[in-house]
Amino acid sequence: MSSSILFCVVLAYFGVLFTVARLASRNATSESFFHGNKNSNWVVVAFGMIGTSLSGVTFVSVPGLVGQSGFLYFQILLGQLIGYLVVAFVLLPVFYKFNLTSIYAYLGIRLGPTSRACGAWLFLLSRCIGASARLYLVIIILQEFILDGLNVSYWFSSAATIGLIVLYTYQAGVKTIIWTDLLQTALMLGGLVAGATYLLNALDLSIVDSYRQMDAKGLARVFSHDVDSSYFWPKQLLAGMLISIAMTGMDQEMMQKNISVKSLRDSQKNVVTLALAMTAVVFLFLFLGGLLSLFAEGAGMTAAGDRIFPAVVFQHMPQVMQLVFVIALISALFPSADGALTALTSSYCMDIARMDQRTGWTDQMRLAFRRKVQLTFAVVIFLLLVVLKLIDSQSIVNLILRLAAITYGPLLGLFCFAMFTSRSIADRKVPLVVLAVPVLCFLLDEFQSHLFGAYRIGLEMLAINGALTLAGLLAISDRPLANPGGAAAFPLPDRLPR
Fold first, then answer.
1. Side-chain half-sphere exposure of 277, counting CA atoms within 13 A
2. 224 DSSP 8-state letter
3. Which pLDDT score is estimated for 476?
């Protein structure tokens, strides 16, 4: 199919997206941008969050991993199931109790304003890098298979993509993206099912027969029992649990949508539903990856990793499947990017600038400031896209998980200290800990072959990072507080400042 036709399809898709965004943003207020007026339907949020959690990285990179490591990624997913339960029944009750707009406000009241700012800055760094990496993967594929044929540069397509996201989230933020994510998740999952169905027919295999062939070729292996390997199953389970706790429960983007739901009970149902749906959907992505590997081998293709899915689609599938792939890929791009930009804006305004506490500001001044912050983060993400183009990592999913293990670890340590100890802390010394530990973990990761021989630290680096942060915070902490029962007994007010 010609690049021009595919480009027209992309434009039509944006037209539908803007229509949904416009309808969703009617009667929007400042509260709509930050937390959707706290009246979002949990079913809509749960379904839309599937797209946010998966993104274009899962759509392209996870199937690409199967040819290299089989179904071992599923180990992480099993651990994530446990982590989602912790989010639902440990973290959410705390966030709802204090009617939070920013979850890092909890760190502020429990530990102090510096700790709150540290939590927010850690999130800003993590989400800027993660959102940029996810955007890069999708843009580079669209560039290779569509936009290069139209002589559209990578720099222009990157800027245009970010500009479109700004436009449809500019007015209503969370209130808008809850509904646009619903649409985009449905289209992404439709593309997933269509791709798997086509490959089964092309290979002339049933689901059972295809799985048997994958198993015979070593593609269907779920558990690794090699203790020295970074894929060793206990390490992957632990990493998956901590990744979901940190990247969902301690991430403003994900929790911003959860706390937009009307009640704690509905929000908990949202998280549990999300966990079950994610398990099924990611397994389907892995199954699709196995089908792609079988097809590519039979067709004599050399494409691998992130490139295998688009290569099979554009080189061997009919035009209608190319259209389905492009729409699904774009749908996978935006749910993580639009939510990230909104959450970055919210966290900076509330946690760093403390906009809600500036009594001398009018509503117009707050609106103008929020929009300036949103545009600034859009520019930051564009600059990071430039850097990623220069790096051109072949497996973005591994890059994101590796960065997450380093940047989310201090958040894990901070929340654990705040919720499960009753000690006071030298708040002004917290930045020393949260800066030193990631550097230490990075060095540990880089030189682990010299330190541990054949043993490899994998994603359990997140646990190491969090534990070192917790140890550092304990080292700068003081006597137990008056009520020694941990966070539950800590004498907090009934409502935290937003």
1. 20
2. B
3. 92
